[in-house]
């Protein structure tokens, strides 16, 4: 995927930001034609729980 996207590494593909920024970026990915999205949560505690809730809400 990194070769296809022309990026140097995983950091160039990471979606990082506020909940609104992350949701907007994921929506952009689908608007660009993606039919699937697999995201890994790299934080724990409350932040991780909010991220998982956000992902679930976008999938609904």
Biggest β-sheet, characterized? Answer: none
What is the subunit organization of this protein? single chain
Number of helices: 3
Number of strands: 0
| Uncertain parts | none
As for the number of domains, it is 1
Mean pLDDT level = 88
Helix/strand order, N-terminal first? HHH
Backbone CA Rg: 12 Å
Indicate the percent of residues in helices. 40-55%
What does this structure look like?
The chain has about 60 residues and is mainly α. The protein has one domain (about 15-60). The protein has helices at about 1-5, 20-30, 45-60. About 0% of the residues are buried.
Characteristics:
0% strand, 60 residues, mainly alpha, globular
Secondary structure layout plus pairing:
Layout (H helix, E strand, L loop, with lengths): L1 H4 L13 H13 L13 H15 L1
Helix pairs in contact: 2-3
Brief digest:
The chain has 60 residues and is mostly helical. The chain has three helices and no strands. 53% of the residues lie in helices and 0% in strands.
